[in-house]
Amino acid sequence: MIINQENYRSTAVGAKAKNLFRLMEHSFFVPPFFCVPEPFCDEEVLSYIEQHFPDSCLYSVRSCASVEDSSSHSFAGQFQTFLRVERSSVCDRIREVLAGLRKEHIFDYCKIHEIDPSSIRLHVIVQEMIEADTSGVLFTANPQGILNETVIVLGAGTGDQVVEDRTDTTACYYNLTDHIYYYEQTGNAPLPNDACIQELIRTSQQVKRIFSMECDMEYAWKDGKLWLLQVRPITTLGNQEPTTILDNSNIVESYPGITLPLTQSFIKDAYHQVFRTLLSRLTRQPDTIRRMDPVLCHMVDTVNGRVYYRISNWYDVLLLLPFHKKLIPIWQEMMGVRVRTVSSSHTGPVRWTARLKTAWSFCCLLFSCPRKMKRLDVYFAELLQEFDALDTVHMNTLELLSAYRTLKDRTAARWDITLVNDMYAFLFTGLLKARLKAGHIPEPDLAANRAIRGIRRLDSLEPIRELLLLAEQARKEERLEDLRKLHSNEDYEKYRTDHAGPFIKQAEAYIRQVGDRNLEELKLESRTFRTDPILLIRRIVQYADHPPAVPESDFAEKNICSNPLPWSARFLAKRAALGIRNRERSRLNRSRLYGMMRTLVLQMGKDFQEKGRICRPEDIFYLRCEEIRQAAEDPALDVQSVIRFRKEQYEGFATLPAYSRLVFSGKVTDKQPQNVRRTSGSGSKTAYTGTACSQGIAEGKVLVIRHPARQTDTENRILVTKMTDPGWVFLIAGAKAVVSEKGSLLSHTAIISRELGKPAVVGIPHITEELEDGDLVRVDGNTGTVTVLCRNRANT
User: Strands across the sheet with 244-247, in order?
Assistant: First the structure.
């Protein structure tokens, strides 16, 4: 009996054919086909072909076994497939496929997978042959375990060339969260255009919904039409639970781009210690801490050289808090989390006694948070003073490591209050916005921005004010021309020695106080004013030539107190402003902590260099903390080979897009990129919308900053970037406005822009790919829109 779309539901035909019949029912383009059982009649087959297929048609003849393409076994490549079969040979090819069930390798496959060969029923698919222009395979999820990445493999000609590796191929990796992708091309393989990629993604997502599974699809393009040739489950993913979700919301401000191994090892350990301390204060139950410890060990994770939150673990902690159903949406908004689904690592139920203690402790910590933050400032000043007394220059690596661990442990023991303060700032900002909306205040989001703008004594702005004083002092002492001639740290050191005076003293004091505040300051490998004083000299000269406007430090209290808002909103605004001010102060202290760590690590690097262990002190950043300890204890350990391997590895990581979210079915794994080709935006839109976080309107030419340099001149430009960190205050100060891909109302972009009076819009996906240097745009910080007034034709 011939099996076709009309009768397949009443026949025990294999999954390969069933899936194709279902695709046809949903109006996908599938080449016409039918199935033949065993035994079959030649005349019936030929008669059916004559009635349903044109005379010129060629055919593909392939297997359709009852166990083939199942959720547990694919039988891929086990049975024969024949392509371009003429009508006269179809029946002979059918017999050859059916005979394959009795081949020795099939019995071997069944034995390995514990399948009874006698239970297998085999049919044969006879299908119109598509002579494809290009064809390939699509996986709705990366078979290596990345669930939100679709993999598209493409080659010239028919699919057998691609599957059997007989032609050059292009692999496209498409992130379903960010809707961006990159290629890896071999040889002269064809490159699909964006329209083809989008059509494949749209089709594959429809297929995934129909079959309710991650799919492995074979497809072909012919004359611009997409044909589906096969759909089966991806068996390599299995049912691994729970999934691991990595999200870079908020943390990407602190660790943008590639972060080297030493910083990674430091922050992973630091987050573990800080959260363990916090939960100890909240729950006061050792058994709860022990149970949660596997979660706390992975509050942050790294993949492809980039830092992420393991966000499901954060939700595990947040779910312990009272009123978490109300708190979590506020936390998500303030952290800029785009995917709002609450996931969990399933750590199990928490006893009601632990929840009661946690609720009481949390409320007490919130109430006492401002007072404890002041105590932290005092403690940190003492810690800094103790560190300054250390003679790090004459310490060996083991002594430096001991100081490193002591500093980390002592800070982690107190730093948990900053997490409470973050929630304090988030909570009161969220309550302020809710109060304004409930009070029917016009444009409540804009009113909230105005209410918390102008925070008195905001520490993030102090480096700018002090730099302006330094520039003025340099002008007063007529040093600017001399400073312009300095080009290296050695030049500055000689100048400092030979030209003592008030300016030099003021510059040295600046380095001691805020010399660790700079771009990407939380990466230990970053250069700062402390490690490279020449960077400070360049900034002083720049500010002397183009001094940025900085508002008065007492603007905030007047701004908040005089705001014509209900008393309850003014109260909430003051609380939010207090939390934000303390948050920025703690971040300045954090930059000083990283400065101390950086000093210790660079001294370790110098010790290793002097002993011939590494080539440059900065190479130490390619080792993890534990590896440095092992190398210090074992002089025979070869660290140079590790460093060489990591440098090559991280160069590869840098070619990959920085995805905002990655979802793994099991273990988090790095990629090994080869011949990566990136895509860029269309640049065809004239308006983009994001979150308004600092009011005002500005027009100007775009300056896209993907890899910020310390000497970048941003004067009167519209900064367009992926994200900012606290050190960006130096770049934002001279700009007209700021636009970023990441951010929220309490991101550093928002806070600094508000205090400097710069219009800012955040949260516009891919804006660094859509706009180019020199594009003329209008940034409306009131409505959250960025309008392109004129494209820079030189870039098109």
Answer: 300-303, 306-310, 244-247, 661-664
Higher-scoring residue by pLDDT: 458, 99 = 99
Catalogue the long-range contacts made by 715-723 (C-beta closer than 8 Å, 24 or more residues apart): 715/546, 718/777, 718/779, 720/767, 720/768, 720/771, 721/768, 722/252, 722/256, 722/658, 722/768, 723/252, 723/253, 723/256, 723/747, 723/749
Between CA 160 and CA 132 the distance in angstroms is 11
Could you say which DSSP state residue 142 is in?
B
How many other C-beta atoms are found inside a 10 Å radius of the C-beta of residue 602? 20
| C-alpha span between 737 and 694 (Å, rounded) | 9
- Sheet order of strands, 59-65 included: 33-36, 122-128, 59-65, 81-85
* Residue 331 buriedness (CB in 10 A; 0-12 / 13-18 / 19+): buried
pLDDT tens for 433-489 read 888 888 888 878 778 877 776 565 567 778 888 899 999 999 999 999 999 999 999
The three-state (H, E, C) secondary structure of 86-109, written as one string:
CHHHHHHHHHHHHHHHHCHHHHHH
Q: Tell me the whole-structure pTM to 2 decimals.
A: 0.85
CA dist 648 to 202, 615, 622, Å?
A: 36, 16, 11
Distance CA 231, CA 217 (A): 5
User: What's the pLDDT at 457?
Assistant: 59
Sign of CA dihedral 731, 735, 741, 745: positive
Q: What is the pLDDT of residue 238?
A: 61
Cβ neighbours around 143 below 10 Å, total? 14
Q: From CA 417, how far away is CA 8, in angstroms rounded?
A: 65
Give residue 553's identity as a one-letter amino acid code: S
Q: Report how far residue 737's alpha carbon sits from residue 733's, in angstroms, rounded to the nearest whole number.
A: 9
29 in Cβ contact with 226 (< 8 Å): yes
